Amino acid sequence: MNRLLSKLDLTDFSNSFYSFLARSKPLFMQGDSKIHFYFIKELMQIQGLKAPKEVENLDTQLAHLSKNGILRIYEIYSFVKIIDYFTYLKNTLQDGRLGDWMQKIEIQEEIGEICSYFDEKGELKSSIDESFSSIEYALKKIKDEASSTLRRLMSNSKLSNYLVDRQVHYINNQETILLRGGFNHVIKGSVVGRSSGGFFYIFPDSLSSLKSKESGLLDKKEELIYKYAKKISSLFAKNIKFLSFINKEFDKFDAYYARFAFAKSKDLEFVLADSSHDIKLSRFSHPVLSNPKPISVDFAKHVLMITGVNAGGKTVFLKSILSAAFLAKYLLPMKIDSTHSKIGSFKEIVAILDDPQSVKNDISTFAGRMGEFSRLFSKKRTLVGIDEIELGTDADEAASLFKVIIEKLIHKDIKIVITTHHKRLASLLSANESVQLLAAIYDEKNRKPTYEFLNGTIGKSYAFETALRYRIPAPIIKEARELYGEDKEKLNDLIQKNIDLELEMKKQSLLLEEKLQETKRAKEAFKDEKERSKKEFELSVLKMQRNFNDAIKEAKEAIKAKDSKEGHRALNRANEFKQRAKKIHIVQKNEKLALGDYVKYGNSKGVIKSIKREIATIDCFGITLRVPLNTLKKSSNPPKKPKKVLISKPNATSSVTLDLHGLRADESIEKLDKFLSDALINGYDEVLVYHGIGTGKLAYAVKTFLSTYPSLVSYADAPINMGGYGATLIKL
Fold this sequence. Notes:
single chain, Rossmann fold, 6 domains, 6-stranded mixed β-sheet, 5-stranded antiparallel β-sheet, about 50% helix, about 15% strand, extended
């Protein structure tokens, strides 16, 4: 683990995280990572939660208790700190997953009472026992008396010439005064120590009796402390299962809190590793970089081969991919756009980055690399990073060897990130569908790397340009170019033209994307305008209807007033107005509906699943309805899921019974289909259909249709008092 952290330059980052833990523990958290992730995300929403206090590892103490051993008082206090913290969490966290977790932890009253024995310094309170109180009082009196004695001594005129200062110095927990040499004939005492200036720390004999009394009292206090330690240890031994449990729960919560606090302190985000093998990073920054240029990459294939310019950021790019996978694996936060990122889970992460050459073991660079590669064939579900794959051997031979090795590793379910200057290796693997190419981009104009990468192409190494940038004389560069050869230079030019073309295509793609977004925005604006016009139209119709009703009312009033001639004229004008309103309403064309459109049917919303002739099948959150196409209206917004029922109250014209007497089979089925749809919309779970007995054809048609109806629960002949064989009782 530490070696991998060092290779990925994550040592300082991990040490920074460890400082947030209340006690040391492994990075890996046992259990379901999804559950861990949800707990941490919930913690991120809580304000002002206190951090757990530092606690030592208590595995040894638990083993000691299992053998009925007696713990020291500071060891007992370590358990007390854990129990106190969970008591605080139980009182603070009431809701959500964290609240459920805390409320399930039961702390026994006798265990909780032990916590009240201790003060903030981890010492037993004097109030728990009268003997403690009396000892503490006696010790205080002795200290006061000792201080008084020392003050009297220091005020003695004979001693004043030997006093270095008038302070009481505590040496080895003893009260002393600091004197110059030659004090022996003035004061009796023992030398406890020497100062850096050569003076003497003297413990006066006059304090010996007080010190003896103090020592006796301290012995009594230790005896009393031991008595309580024995009593508490006995109680802890009886509750060892609870202590073991809460000790593990503390480690779990500590791991959550440390991740939450660490992420908050550095403004980092979490990415939950999923079950896929894909790695999609959006604006990821490696923690080691002080002013990083965020990287984005969609690594969906088995192999990512990074080629191109020296010192162009290829190695950092490789380490960034491996680091992101490592941080996601151990649920550690990172600098990333988590919303648009995706990281798969890997059983192991292997970094082949440094030169394995060793004089001590007589291993060459290439031999060491081959040893590392050979171990990969025994691994599965592993992410491997290989920096400078061609290191240590002939380029042409290595290209053929590594092509075969990489293709074999692909079949082992291993995902590989490679950096290389091998144009031949890159060209050999470029035809493989499992290989993805990435080229480091070089700024030809300014003669420096851009630290950006281009997908789907092989990059130039720019060795000559780099050498020139670092002030290798131009004539030497020219001679080297000539020696390199005209054909190879043409190949480099071709690669450069390909890169330039890709960059231009990328630029055009961005412009097209911007235009597409503008078109989408215009389309949305048009939809909004259409909805607004539609609402205005409906309001106009309502206004006209109100005017019509007012005209009718006036006409009726005129008739009542016995001015029948004028009244009939007003009535005729109102009817003409009504006809014009109807015509206006008819002029409005029905919108063309298609599969997947969001629609309104009455007061309910749904989505079209199929259209057959003039009948549409719509889904209203699990309820499938077949309704006439002309009864639907297009909706610009997706349907919102209802809380309980699709609508709050049934339609005023709805009914729980349907009479089909006298209808043909096709007419009755069409009417039955709409009736059942309306019943579902209105929340009815039981309806009755009358079809009569007759020849039985209508009853057969009804039951045949019901057997294929998607939202049906059951159907049966109605009870005798509700129609018997001449009716069908339907449950929806």
